[in-house]
TrEMBL record, chain A:
Gene Ontology molecular function: heme binding
Protein name: Unannotated protein
Keyword entries, A-Z: Membrane, Transmembrane, Transmembrane helix
TM region positions: 30-51
Automatic annotation (TrEMBL), chain B:
Membrane-spanning ranges: 22-44, 64-82, 89-112, 118-142, 154-171, 199-220
Protein name: Unannotated protein
Gene Ontology cellular-component terms listed: plasma membrane
Organism: freshwater metagenome
Keyword Cytoplasm applies: no
Length: 178, 255
């Protein structure tokens, strides 16, 4: 515990100094407050801008198809649902179609797809349209976009058993049916 | 001027009490029930498999982290308005426990993200705003520890504390406002029944109960500890002032 001075002959002067310091600190409060307000405004501007760029975190298949000309060879994230029956293993990865809002784009993915990759799942693909102009999307990074729907595995099996073992095609993501 | 000390307001005498021992016991029992339902009784998810079980800790942890942030902002407002030390310490306890649960949220989320999404982390709006929340909480704790008088430190920290609830609101709404990899809320949305099935919903419910009890226990204990620390410090100050007064009076003639 720091408490100096223990005995002060000049404690009166010290008291005056303290009092004037208090007045000064009150006068200094305004610029400090102004500074905080400015920092807050600038800070929130930066934050909103940074998060705002997340609006283009991905482009849906239909949007990407419409913007193909302007996008050119620009790298972006493409979001769509893997079309059932379109998955083909290639030498260096996998090729398939993605669909959204009734539009489909063929994809050439280089690299091993994640474990959760399967038909009718939504995926994010990072890459660009093929330079050849064929409209194929060349991707080398795939992220599975999981929906907010949770289904019990056992219940799923029971449902399948009810249908005589036929696996029903679940289209829980909008835009999977063209 | 006599400095205001916490002794003027009645507060806890120790970190434990009968009520908190019961609370602690309930929390342990609830954690046991959560383990039972989360790991054994509830089924695997049809598409995620076993990793869905992480949700039973992840979602409640995020929720109590938000509650902790709310306590901090509320405590900060009341401190700035009324200069209440009690509320300042509530704000402090809230921030520390919220930091813990934000870290748990981020770690469990990353562990779930790797097998499900295929990546630990992406800079989407939900994940970015949560990372910002953690930084803000750490900032609050750091500012409160910068060496200065108690009033100065408390005031600075309270100003940072005001930002926590707005940040929480951004985190909450990020999945609605922007396109994110993170899924939209399953709970508190329309058509709950079709989005999560019976036993999984119940397991998540036990998760909310267990994590809330742990959160409550931690908040109460962290608050009491901070209160007692405060008291020890101000008691030491009172004694030191009394000693110096006594010394000063020796050489003086009483008026």
């Amino acid at each position: 515990m720091e408490l100096t001075p223990r005995t002060g002959p000049d404690s009166g002067a010290e008291g005056e100094a303290l009092a004037s310091k208090r007045i000064r600190s009150k006068r200094n409060r305004l610029p400090a407050l102004a500074m905080i307000v400015v920092l807050l405004v600038v800070g929130s501007f930066v934050v909103v801008n940074a998060l705002g760029s997340a609006t283009t975190f991905y482009r849906n298949v239909d949007e990407a198809a419409a913007q193909r000309e302007t996008l050119g060879l620009t790298r972006f994230r493409l979001q769509g649902t893997v079309v059932a029956g379109s998955i083909v293993q290639t030498g260096e990865g996998v090729s398939f179609d993605v669909a959204y809002n009734g539009v489909e784009i063929p994809v050439d993915h280089v690299g091993d797809p994640p474990e959760m990759f399967k038909a009718n799942e939504a995926v994010l693909l990072e890459g660009n349209f093929d330079a050849s102009g064929s409209g194929t999307f060349d991707s080398n990074l795939m992220i599975i976009k999981h929906s907010e729907v949770y289904k019990e595995k056992e219940a799923d099996r029971l449902q399948q058993a009810d249908m005589g073992g036929k696996v029903p095609v679940v289209t829980s993501v909008p835009g999977t049916t063209p | 001027m006599i400095p205001q000390t916490p002794t003027e307001v009645t507060g806890p005498a120790s970190t434990g009490s009968r009520a908190t021992r019961v609370l602690g016991l309930l929390a342990l029992v609830a954690l046991g029930v959560l383990v039972l339902f989360g790991l054994i009784l509830s089924p695997a998810d049809a598409s995620q498999g076993e990793s869905v079980r992480i949700m039973y800790v992840h979602v409640p942890s995020a929720t109590v982290a938000y509650i902790g942030c709310f306590l901090t902002t509320l405590g900060s407002i009341i401190y700035l308005w009324r200069k209440s030390r009690w509320w300042e310490l509530v704000a402090y306890a809230g921030a520390e426990v919220a930091t813990l649960f934000t870290v748990i949220t981020l770690v469990t989320g990353m562990l779930w993200g790797r097998p499900t999404w295929g990546v630990y982390w992406v800079w989407d709006a939900r994940l970015t705003s949560t990372a910002m929340l953690l930084l803000l909480l750490l900032g609050y704790l750091a500012v409160r520890r910068l060496p200065a008088d108690y009033e100065v430190r408390a005031k600075r920290a309270a100003i940072v504390g005001l930002l926590l609830v707005p940040n929480v609101m951004i985190v909450r709404k990020s999945v609605d406002w922007w396109r994110t990899l993170h899924q939209k809320p399953t709970l508190l949305s329309n058509g709950l029944d079709s989005k999560i099935e019976g036993l999984m919903l119940f397991s998540l419910f036990t998760g909310f109960i267990a994590i809330s009890l742990v959160f409550g226990w931690l908040i109460v204990h962290r608050f009491r500890l901070a209160w007692l620390e405060e008291q020890v410090e101000s008691e030491g100050l009172d004694i030191a002032i009394a000693e110096r007064r006594a010394e000063a009076l020796i050489g003086e003639v009483a008026p």
